[in-house]
Design brief:
The chain is mainly alpha-helical. It is built from 2 helices and no strands.
């Protein structure tokens, strides 16, 4: 099962990290003010890095499962 696969769980966790960073960024943008001015660019960079890791893990998972099977 997928939930027993450590690589799947790692990829899912990385995707959740991207979601959390995205929600914090959207919330800060909606509120505006000092928080948005101070942290908007940093949150965008963190999201891009986390998204790269998540996509790499997902592609790696698909490649490994396709190549080696279950």
């Amino acid at each position: 099962m997928l939930r027993d696969d450590p690589l799947f769980l790692l990829a899912a966790g990385a995707s959740l990290v991207v979601l959390v960073i995205l929600m914090i960024g959207i919330g800060g943008f909606a509120r505006g003010g000092e928080f948005n001015r101070k942290h908007a660019n940093r949150l965008m960079r963190y999201r891009i890095y986390a998204q790269f890791v998540a996509v790499a893990l997902i592609v790696g998972f698909v490649y490994i499962r396709h190549t080696w099977g279950n």
